[in-house]
Write a structure and sequence with these properties.
Metallo-beta-lactamase, Chain A; about 270 residues; alpha/beta; globular; binds zinc ion; five-stranded mixed sheet
């Protein structure tokens, strides 16, 4: 029997001063304001905890001029999760806002697509524009994990444990993977940056940070096919996640596996 998991989204940062041009290529209202939210996701089953991405710390926030509300450790406190107890991290991709806390979880094994490590350490990184979403020290942290037997490479579709699998999508970065997790409500998909907003996949709109447009578009269909119902697709950066899913533990934590609130229009 497939294991059933609880799933949480923790909203650790917010960025304003963006426009729709920063979220959608070829948009009709490109100069309108468009806010972005940042999340860490947690899969829980009894005392077992799997983090999906880690956010980033105050040092990175200062360096990029992108403040955070909560450091990765602070973000996990409401769920009583201590960094030492985290044994597994699924890293959807190595961008700074997803892999910026790998160094804070000394006992965690990291699950990463092989294609992401190849991309983030290969010749493409000679181009500043492609390197921009990555941070040197985060890549070093991933390599530290590799050299201490705490990195598992996945290629394509792969099972992490019962009820949890990863699926290579690419598009936004070469090795971007989404996470499929079995819950009381069915198969839920943490899309991460395969769809930053609901609008990206619902309207087939490309996000401007894209290394392969065709893969990004194929990814939109992929995430639909992986979930049991559209309400179980969770975009990576959408403020609407905070409206659609019920609050639990703290004002910045949402429970994702028990279904959406009654007012959610996706039902
Ligand atoms: Zn990204
Ligand atoms: Zn992101």
């Amino acid at each position: 029997m497939t294991d059933v998991w609880e799933v949480y989204a923790i909203n650790y940062a917010q960025r304003q001063g963006r426009t729709r041009a920063d979220s959608f290529l070829f948009d009709d209202h490109s100069s309108s304001a468009h806010q972005m939210e940042y999340y860490i996701w947690v899969l829980k089953q009894g005392t077992d905890v799997i983090l999906v991405d880690t956010g980033y710390d105050h040092e990175e926030a200062k360096k990029r001029g992108r403040p955070i509300r909560l450091s990765p450790v602070e973000a996990l406190a409401p769920l009583s999760i201590h960094p030492e107890q985290v044994k597994s991290i699924i890293c959807t991709h190595l961008h700074y806002d997803h892999a910026g806390g790998l160094h804070l979880f000394p006992n965690a094994t990291v699950h990463l697509q092989q294609a992401e490590m190849t991309y983030a350490t290969g010749p493409c990184m000679c181009h500043q524009v492609l390197r921009m979403p990555y941070s040197n020290n985060h890549i070093h942290s991933a390599i530290d994990k590799l050299y201490s037997d705490k990195l598992v490479f996945h290629t394509g579709d792969s099972t992490v444990t019962s009820g949890v699998s990863v699926h290579l999508v690419g598009g936004h970065s070469r090795g971007l993977q989404v996470v499929r997790v079995f819950t009381d409500s069915g198969w839920l998909v943490l899309a991460s940056d395969a769809s930053h907003y609901y609008e990206n996949y619902l309207e087939n709109k490309l996000f401007p940070i894209v290394v392969d447009a065709e893969d990004m578009l194929a990814g939109f269909s992929r995430i639909r096919n992986l979930c049991t119902h559209a309400t179980l697709i969770v975009p990576g950066h959408d403020p609407l996640v905070l409206d659609y899913f019920p609050e639990t533990y703290a004002s910045f934590v949402r429970r994702l596996d028990k279904g959406v609130v009654d007012s959610c229009p996706l039902q």
